[in-house]
Specification:
It is globular and about 50 Å long. It has one domain (3-273): Rossmann fold. The chain has 274 residues and is an alpha/beta fold. It starts with a helix and ends with a strand. The longest helix is centred in the first third of the chain and has 24 residues, at 51-74. The protein contains ten helices and seven strands. It has a seven-stranded mixed sheet.
Length: 274
């Protein structure tokens, strides 16, 4: 289990508890209930008000809303989720039995997910695949599990490209394009406009544990591609942007304004077609 899988589940559980949530993920709290605390404590869902947790909750709520809508619009029979973590779209979006969702992540994360969701039935065909994107042959892993490049596919890179170098991210986009010759194939993703800086959030208002978590995230994202023009970046790797926005603009459109201290962060969210 990793923080990168657990923290989004925490944020989705928090959003689900809101009086008027942007989406509902009824399974998210089950992951928190089974978490044994080995990575450190998570904030209480009832009192998560610090700058760090408020920022994280906002970011995940906005991007999840975008990704959910984009998946529904894509309407394709194959979905590949990169770094799937504890996401539950195969269970909660009402995808039909004609849809196959390939969930790619590390074996330990998928094993935890299987234990927690034992007995739950996805609405579509769900195929968990233990693999390391960038280290394993993604095409071979997918094809070995029944993926068909001739079938329209939606690729989801939610909070995933942040952890790659520019070269790795470019190679991944090229590889997905090569597997997406079918008309209607889509890419839904998220990239940063500039590298995060420790001062992007008010660290003076954080506890020592929160500071450590924030600094670890800043370091983890330190090698990520900085994309100033997402449409041009996508075009350079065989994808045509259909929608590009950022979290703050999208939050405003959703009547969910960003916390006032969040304005220094720029996360692009996009959808694209082949």
């Amino acid at each position: 289990m990793t923080w990168t899988a657990l923290l989004p589940a925490w944020a989705r559980a928090l959003e689900t508890r809101r009086p008027h949530p942007l989406f509902e993920d009824p399974l998210a709290e089950r992951f928190l209930a089974r978490y044994a605390g080995e990575l450190g404590p998570l904030p209480d869902l009832a009192v998560a008000t610090s700058p760090l947790w408020s920022a994280f909750a906002y970011s995940v709520a906005i991007r999840t809303t975008f990704f959910d809508a984009a998946v529904r619009r894509a309407g394709v029979p194959q979905i590949v989720v990169l770094g799937a973590g504890l996401e539950t779209r195969a269970y909660r979006l009402g995808l039909g039995p004609e849809v196959t969702v390939f969930e790619i992540d590390r074996a330990a994360t998928l094993a935890f997910k299987e234990r927690v969701l034992a007995g739950e039935r996805p609405t579509c065909r769900r195929v968990p695949l233990a693999a390391e994107v960038g280290a394993d042959d993604l095409a071979a892993v997918l094809k070995g599990a029944g993926f068909d490049p001739a079938v329209p596919t939606a690729w989801l890179a939610e909070g995933f490209l942040f952890y790659l170098t520019p070269e790795q991210a470019g190679d991944l986009l090229d590889g997905m394009a090569a597997l997406s010759a079918a008309p209607g194939s889509a890419l839904i993703g998220e990239v940063i406009g500039r590298s995060y800086d420790p001062g992007d959030l008010p660290v003076e208002l954080m506890s020592e544990e929160e500071k450590a978590t924030w600094l670890a995230l800043v370091a983890a994202f330190g090698r990520a591609p900085e994309v100033t023009d997402p449409a041009a970046w996508l075009a350079g790797h065989g994808w045509s942007a259909t929608e590009v926005t950022d979290q703050i603009a999208l939050g405003t459109a959703l009547a969910r304004p960003a916390p006032e201290f969040y304005t220094g962060l720029q996360n692009w969210i996009f959808s694209a077609r082949r």
